Amino acid sequence: MRKLKLKDITVSSDSSIKNAMHLLDRGGLRLVFVIDEKKLLGIVSDSEIRKSILKGTSVSENVKNILNPNPVVLQEIQLNNQYETKMVIRKLIQKMPGSTHILLVDNQKNVKDLINISTLIKENQFPFKKNYQHNKRILVIGGAGFLGCILVPKLLKRGYKVRILDNLMYGSSHLSPILAHTNCELLEGDIRNISTLVLALSDVDAAINLAAIVGDPACKNDPESAIETNYLANKAVAETCKYFQVNRFIYASTCSVYGQMEGNDELNENSALNPVSLYAKSKIQSEEGILDLMDENFSPTILRMGTLYGYSPRMRFDLVANAMTKTAISEGKIHVHAGGKQWRPMLSVEDAAEAYIKCLEAPLEKIRGEIFNVGSEVQNYQILDIAQIIKKSFPKAQLIVEKESFDPRNYLVSFSKIQKILKFKTKHTIDSTTKQIVKAIKSGEIKNVNDAKYYNIVIDS
Ligand SMILES: NC(=O)c1ccc[n+]([C@@H]2O[C@H](COP(=O)([O-])OP(=O)(O)OC[C@H]3O[C@@H](n4cnc5c(N)ncnc54)[C@H](O)[C@@H]3O)[C@@H](O)[C@H]2O)c1
User: Which end of the chain has the lower number of beta carbons within 10 A, N or C?
Assistant: First the structure.
C-alpha cells in the first residue's frame, strides 16, 4: 500500500474549498490539513465541506472560512506518555471513526510528523496492564444494557475499575449515576468497529461481553445486525482479547440455545442444542467460535443464562415476567401467550450479575473453557406459573391465557454444574423483584411504562 505523505493531504490557508475537495478525493484520508509554514491552522473534513455546501457556501471560497481550528492532534510531549497517547487516539477515533493517521505537533502547533495509528499501537504495545494489577480493570461490553447496569455497580463496589463499551442503542440517560463513580469510564462505540475493540481491550485485565441484539423478535426484525453483532463482532471481540492476552473472558449466552426439548429431562451443558430462532443460533455460533480460540493465554467461559427478570436502571418490559408485571399495573391484566405450558428457566438480573462475579474471581482452572447454565432448578417455571406468581401481587388482575399462538421454545434446565463448581446459589425471586418494579413505577422513576426505551423491540415472552 502507498505510504501516505503529509504533502498529499495538506493545503495552505489561501486555497479554495474546491482545491481541498480535490485533495480529499486523492489523499486517502477523509480530511485535509490546513498548514501555513509548518503551522497547523486546522482541518477540513468531508463533513465540514458537506455542511458548508448545504449552507450555500461557494466552493471557490477560502478553506479558512470553514476549517475546524481545534482538531484532535498528538502533542510531542504526549508521545512520551503512553497513557496520554492512548487517550488522544481514543478521542480521535470517537470523534472521527475510521481515522488511520494522527498529526504530531509541538506546543506551538508546528507540524512534526504524520503518524500511522496502527504503527503507534504496535510500537507502544499498550503495556499499561501492569499499572492496574492491584486494581484490576474490567471491560464490560454492552455494560449500558439491562444486565450491565446491575453488574457494573457491583464490580465498582468490589473495587474494580470498570470500562463500559457500548453503542448506547437504548440511550444513556440511565447511566449518569453509574458514570459518576470515579472508577467507571464509558467508551461509546460499536463492537463491529475493530479500532474501537483495540482501544477498549488493549489495557484491561478481563473482559465480559454482554453486547448483542438481544431476543428473538429483535433479531428477527434486523437479521443482518444480529449476525454482524451476535456472531461476527463477538468473534472479533474474542480474537482481540486473545491478541492482547486478556485471559479471562466471560461471554453472555442463553439457555434458549436448548430451544425445543425432546422429552422431559432437565438439559445440562452437554445436552443436544435445538435452537428455534436466529437469536439462539447466533449465540451457539458465537460460543463455538470463542471456545475454538482457547489457548494458554485465552481462557473463555460461557454463561448460558435463563430468562432474566427484575428491575434495572435500563429497564426492560419486553421480558416475560417484567411484561406481566407491567400489564398487571397498567391494564389490570396478565397476558399468557401460547397456552403457557412451555417451560422456561427464570433468573433475576441481580443473581445473573453475581454469576459473572463468581466467574471473574474463580480460580482459572475451574472456569477455563467451561460452559455453565446459570439459574436454579426451583426457578424452572411454566409460563403459566410465572403469571400465577405475579397475580399474587395483583389479586384483582385478570389472567388472560391466549391459546391461539404457538411458542416452540420449551426447555427445562439443570443448574447443578454451576452450583457444584462455583457454589452459585440464586437469592432473588420473581415475587421480591416484582415489588421493586412496582416501587420504581409508583415513585415516578419509571414515568411511562410504554416508552420505547424499555423495549428491545416488540413484547417478548
Ligand atoms: N435478558 C435476558 O433475558 C437474557 C437471557 C439470557 C442471556 N442474555 C444475554 O445477556 C446479554 C445482556 O442482555 P440484556 O438483557 O442486558 O440486553 P440489553 O439489550 O439490555 O443490553 C445489550 C447492550 O448491548 C449494547 N449493544 C448492542 N449492540 C452493540 C454493538 N454492536 N456494539 C456495542 N454495544 C452494543 C446495547 O446498546 C445494550 O446496552 C446479552 O448478550 C443477552 O443475549 C440475556
Answer: N
Task: Confirm or reject: Cβ of 191 under 6 Å from ligand 1.
Answer: yes
User: In the prediction, which pLDDT does 135 show?
Assistant: 57
Cell of 423: 457454589
Site to substitute for ligand 1 among 139, 141, 146, most atoms within 8 A of C-beta? 146
| Mutation to probe ligand 1, out of 139, 174, 214 (largest number of atoms < 8 A from CB) | 214
In order, the DSSP letters of 75-140 are: EHHHHT-HHHHHHHHHHHHHHSTT--EEEEE-TT-BEEEEEEHHHHHHHH--GGGGGGTTS-EEEE
Dihedral sign of CA atoms 361, 363, 369, 374 in order: negative
Residue range 312-333: average pLDDT? 95
3-class SS at 20?
A: helix
The amino acid present at 125, given as its one-letter code, is Q
Q: Is the CB of 222 under 6 A from ligand 1?
A: no
Domains and CATH numbers, the chain: 1-71 (3.10.580.10), 73-125 (no CATH), 139-454 (3.40.50.720)
Q: Calculate the CA dihedral of residues 65, 68, 74, 77 and round it to 10 degrees.
A: 70
Mutating to test ligand 1, I would choose from 169, 302, 351, 457 the residue with most ligand atoms within 8 A of its C-beta, which is: 169
- What was the pLDDT predicted at 125? 53
List C-alpha distances in Å: 294 to 224, 248, 367, 457. Answer: 27, 11, 12, 34
| CB of residue 300 inside a 6 A radius of ligand 1 | no
Helices and strands in the chain, H and E counts: 18, 18
List, for residues 228-280, the tens digit of each pLDDT value.
Answer: 999 999 999 999 999 998 999 999 999 999 998 787 889 999 999 999 899 99
Condensed to tens digits (0 to 9), the pLDDT of residues 114-169 reads: 988 877 776 665 443 333 334 589 999 999 999 999 999 999 999 999 999 999 99
pLDDT tier at 190, thresholds 50, 70, 90: very high
Output the CA angle 429-432-434, nearest 5 degrees: 105
User: What backbone phi and psi angles, to 5 degrees, belong to 216?
Assistant: -60, -50
pTM for the whole structure: 0.75
92 lines ligand 1 (CB under 6 A): no
209 Cα nearest atom in ligand 1? 41
Q: What amino acid is encoded at 60 in this protein?
A: S
